[in-house]
């Protein structure tokens, strides 16, 4: 493969990010950068090496010729720390790795470098989070409000403010901006948190931990693209622009977007990162949201072949297998995940899905609780546990689970939709309407949500609004939907618009003839059409509708026979 300076530069940046983020204890960001680096297409720096590329890959490279770029500011800061500062940082990092966070912070109390200050304050933050978790009760326990504060955040914010007062934003270490944004988001100061995270990414765009926090905080698609455009304007080189492109794909995936340009962008990134499982997962999630389950399953199979011990996002894979009712494959996936790491939240969710498919809802809830004990921010566990409580007809517990899910990520369509369903069961239709509207704002092209909105408006006796919703649901149906046609007919009957009633009842009848499937709605539509034609004295049509009606209650069948007899008698006169 020919040498590509841009790819070579991207490789260097990712390698530098892996080192920097590892040194600062941002392990998820470091793992992401290392996986991206591993998934990058091969770069050959010496054209003469073309003849023996395998040897090139295996040979040891001298440190002086390493591709860590000298103009990476964070790598420079790390390499040129004073010996004393470097020793302190190394000692603190060993304590940090042993989860002795207070001890790590104490070692760095006199740190002068931006990195030293970050590791100190981040250690304090994690110490507070650890103590908070220890004080909290079990998942959905009596005192599990989900709002227990981190007692160290006031001190951290005070020190950060002191740092910001004496420097311009661009002169502050980007990791401090990241920590500032992280804490602001925890305190529900979303706008200020987004500003801080954006500033961090403008200065250092290779911290995926920062990208993840930023993307989770963005609630509207246009706002998300505006923020990404702002970041992109401050970044010049190819590696930084590539990070923005990856973030843009994730944004579109999280907001359930489906358009050709998205697939083109993703394919373009996959040519740069042909073996990057994260991007393949994004492609699988896009297929999953589009209800293309077979394509999503094939992509996850490919990811598992490439990296058979990878648990990241396998809970979504289990959701796909659940929907496709592939019990044996889901069972195998649960056993595989359990063999890899039985104490990962993803593993618990996979096992819970397996029990749910077997209708063992109590066991499923037990494993979702276990997943949440391991990680309170495990979004899919909150949402799916809500579904299990719905199955057990425990609406109040379901509502609390869904509420926690939207607190964790308010872009979770299933949680908003679940809240709407739970309140509908409780006959609280005003609440139900609000949550359905929130779900609709996330997936406006989903027929189910428009139908649910129509049902809600109908129960609130807002018939014209209900008609609009059912019509929209009908537009989004691939083929005519008998149930929606029948509901529209009943609404128009209440509005005394008989021509429209006839139109939709006739549509129900036509669907029955075309599809050859009879159901309650088509039978009732036949009966209504037969009565209507009798009133209009169209005996032949009335007989046609009534004579073949053989599905429904005994009363409906008897009424149809009566109409058929009378119509036949009229025709014989």
Topology:
Elements: H1 5-23, H2 27-39, H3 53-58, H4 73-79, H5 83-97, H6 101-107, H7 114-135, H8 153-165, H9 174-186, H10 190-203, H11 208-217, H12 221-233, H13 238-254, H14 260-272, H15 277-289, H16 293-306, H17 314-323, H18 327-340, H19 345-357, H20 361-374, H21 379-391, H22 395-408, H23 413-425, H24 429-442, H25 447-459, H26 463-475, H27 482-494, H28 498-515, H29 520-535, H30 539-547, H31 554-572
Helix pairs in contact: 1-2, 1-13, 5-6, 5-7, 6-7, 9-10, 9-11, 10-11, 10-12, 12-13, 13-14, 13-15, 14-15, 15-16, 16-17, 17-19, 18-19, 19-20, 19-21, 20-21, 21-22, 21-23, 22-23, 23-24, 24-25, 25-26, 26-27, 27-28, 28-29, 29-30, 29-31, 30-31
Instruction: Summarize the main sheet.
Output: none
CATH class of the domain at 463-572: Mainly Alpha
Q: Report the average pLDDT across residues.
A: 88
Q: Briefly note the structural class of the backbone.
A: mainly alpha
CATH topology of the domain at 463-572: Serine Threonine Protein Phosphatase 5, Tetratricopeptide repeat
The CATH architecture assignment of the domain at 463-572 turns out to be Alpha Horseshoe
**Which percent band covers the strand fraction?**
under 5%
Helix percentage range? over 70%
Tell me the CATH superfamily of the domain at 463-572.
Answer: Tetratricopeptide repeat domain
Low-pLDDT parts are 48-70
Shape: elongated
Number of helices: 31
Number of extended strands: 0
Please tell me how large the radius of gyration is.
Answer: 30 Å
User: How far is the first residue's CA from the last residue's CA?
Assistant: 89 Å
Pfam family, one: TPR_8
Keywords: Cell cycle, Cell division, Mitosis, Repeat, TPR repeat, Ubl conjugation pathway
Protein name: CYFA0S16e00144g1_1
Biased composition (Acidic residues): 52-71
């Amino acid at each position: 493969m020919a040498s590509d300076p841009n790819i070579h530069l991207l490789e260097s940046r990712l390698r530098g990010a892996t080192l920097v983020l590892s040194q600062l204890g941002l392990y998820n960001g470091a793992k992401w950068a290392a996986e991206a680096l591993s998934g990058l297409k091969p770069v050959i720096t010496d054209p003469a090496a073309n003849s023996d590329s395998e040897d090139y890959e295996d040979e040891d490279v001298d440190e002086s010729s390493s591709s860590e770029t000298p103009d990476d500011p964070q790598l420079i800061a790390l390499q040129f720390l004073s010996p004393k500062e470097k020793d302190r940082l190394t000692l603190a990092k060993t304590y940090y790795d042993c989860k002795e966070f207070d001890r790590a912070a104490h070692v760095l109390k006199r740190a002068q470098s931006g990195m030293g200050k970050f590791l100190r304050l981040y250690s304090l933050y994690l110490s507070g989070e650890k103590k908070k978790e220890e004080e909290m009760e079990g998942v959905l326990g009596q005192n599990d409000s989900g709002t227990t504060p981190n007692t160290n955040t006031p001190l951290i914010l005070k020190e950060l403010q002191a740092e910001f007062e004496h420097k311009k934003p661009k002169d502050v270490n980007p990791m401090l901006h990241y920590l500032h944004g992280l804490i602001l988001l925890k305190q529900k100061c979303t706008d200020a948190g987004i500003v801080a995270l954006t500033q961090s990414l403008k200065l250092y765009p290779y911290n995926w931990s920062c990208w993840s926090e930023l993307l989770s905080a963005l609630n509207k698609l246009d706002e998300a693209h505006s923020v990404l455009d702002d970041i992109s304007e401050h970044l010049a080189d190819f590696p930084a622009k590539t990070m923005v492109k990856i973030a843009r794909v994730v944004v579109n995936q999280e907001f359930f977007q489906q358009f050709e340009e998205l697939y083109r962008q993703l394919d373009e990134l996959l040519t740069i990162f042909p073996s990057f499982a994260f991007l393949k997962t994004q492609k699988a999630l896009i297929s999953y949201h589009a209800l293309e389950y077979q394509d999503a399953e094939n992509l996850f199979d490919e990811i598992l072949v490439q990296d058979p011990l990878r648990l990241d996002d396998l809970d979504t894979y289990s959701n796909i297998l659940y929907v496709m009712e592939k019990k044996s494959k889901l069972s195998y996936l649960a056993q595989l995940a359990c063999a890899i790491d039985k104490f990962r939240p993803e593993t618990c969710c996979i096992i819970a899905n397996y029990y749910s498919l077997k209708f063992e809802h109590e066991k499923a809830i037990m494993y979702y609780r276990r997943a949440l004990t391991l990680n309170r921010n495990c979004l899919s566990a909150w949402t799916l546990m809500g579904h299990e409580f719905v199955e057990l007809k425990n609406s109040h517990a379901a509502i609390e689970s869904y509420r926690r899910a939207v607190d964790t990520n308010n872009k979770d369509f299933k949680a908003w939709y679940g809240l709407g369903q739970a309140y509908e069961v409780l006959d609280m239709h005003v609440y139900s309407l609000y949550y359905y509207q929130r779900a609709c704002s996330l997936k406006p092209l989903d027929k189910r949500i428009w139908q649910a909105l129509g049902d809600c408006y109908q129960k609130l006796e807002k018939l014209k609004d209900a008609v609009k919703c059912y019509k929209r649901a009908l537009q989004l149906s691939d083929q005519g939907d008998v149930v929606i046609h029948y509901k529209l007919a009943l609404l128009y009957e209440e509005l005394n618009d008989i021509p429209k009633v006839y139109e939709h009842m006739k549509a129900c009848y036509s669907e029955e003839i075309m599809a050859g499937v009879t159901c309650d709605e088509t039978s009732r539509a036949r009966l209504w059409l037969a009565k209507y034609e009798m009133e209009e004295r169209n005996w032949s049509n009335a007989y046609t509708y009534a004579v073949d009606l053989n599905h429904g209650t005994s009363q409906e069948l008897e009424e149809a026979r009566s109409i058929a007899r009378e119509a036949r008698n009229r025709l014989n006169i």
